Amino acid sequence: MRASLIQIAVNEGESVASRRSRAAELVREQSGSDLVVLPELWTVGAFAYEQFETEAEPLDGPTYEAMSKAARDAGVWLHAGSVVERAGDGSLYNTALVLSPAGELAATYRKIHRFGFDQGEAVLMSPGDSLTTVTLPEQTLGLATCYDLRFPELFRGLVDAGATTMVVSAGWPARRRAHWTLLNRARAVEDQSYVLACALAGTHAGVEQSGHSLVVDPWGEVLAEAGPGEDVLTVDLDPRKVAETREQFPALKDRVLGLHTPGGAPAGSS
C-alpha cells in the first residue's frame, strides 16, 4: 500500500477558500497512491479559535465537496484531515472525514480528547464518544486526532477493533515537537501497528506548527519524516508486516485486563 501524507502549511495570509482549492490540487497530484492523509483543521488552523464559529460547516459542506472531487479524480482513499463540523443542534465538533476512491464519505471521527485545559478547543467544541476504524483492501485504519495521541488507551481500543494502521491527523505546536516524535513511535511499538502521522506546517494564531510528519513501522522505526515546512511524504507499506510483527513478538497476547487497585476497584475507575 502506498501512502502519501500532505503536510500543508496554514498561514494567516491565505484565505480558507484558497487553501481548500490548493489542498485539492495537492491531493490530485498523489494519484499513484492508495491512501492520502491531510492534517487536522487545515482549513482554519488548529489554534485559530476565533474562526471556529465562522468557518464551521456541515459534513457535506464545502470541504467535503472539494475533497470528494479530489479523491475521485485521484482515485485514492482520502483521510481529508478534520474540519470544524457544525452539527444539526448547533454544536461544534473537530471531525475527521475519510472518503473512498469514488468520493463517497466512508467514515467520520469526532475527536474525543479536546485540547486546551478548559480553554480553546476544550470549551468551544463538543467531544466525540466513539472509536472509528475504516477497512481498506489491505489495511484497517484506526483514526485519531492530535491530542488523542497522549491517551494510549484509545489506541488499544483501536487495536481491539482490528486496526493495523493508525492515522494521526494533527495541528501540533513546534514547541512540543519532541513529544510528537516520541509519542508516535511509542504508539507504533506498543500497538505493533504502522502509524501515519500528518501534521500542519506554518504559523497561525501566533502558534508555530511542528511539521515533521512521519511514518513509523510496527517496530517503531521511522520510515520517513518531513521537515518543518510544507511537504509531501510518500511511503510504500507492507500490509503483511503488522501480522508478522505481532506473530514474531506476540506481546499483545500477554495483556492483562481488568487489574484492580489495592482498594479493590478496577484501575482507572473513580
Automatic annotation (TrEMBL):
<dbReference type="InterPro" id="IPR001110">
    <property type="entry name" value="UPF0012_CS"/>
</dbReference>
<comment type="similarity">
    <text>Belongs to the carbon-nitrogen hydrolase superfamily. NIT1/NIT2 family.</text>
</comment>
<dbReference type="InterPro" id="IPR003010">
    <property type="entry name" value="C-N_Hydrolase"/>
</dbReference>
<keyword id="KW-0378">Hydrolase</keyword>
<dbReference type="GO" id="GO:0106008">
    <property type="term" value="F:2-oxoglutaramate amidase activity"/>
</dbReference>
<dbReference type="InterPro" id="IPR036526">
    <property type="entry name" value="C-N_Hydrolase_sf"/>
</dbReference>
<protein>
    <submittedName>
        <fullName>2-oxoglutaramate amidase</fullName>
        <ecNumber>3.5.1.111</ecNumber>
    </submittedName>
</protein>
<dbReference type="Pfam" id="PF00795">
    <property type="entry name" value="CN_hydrolase"/>
</dbReference>
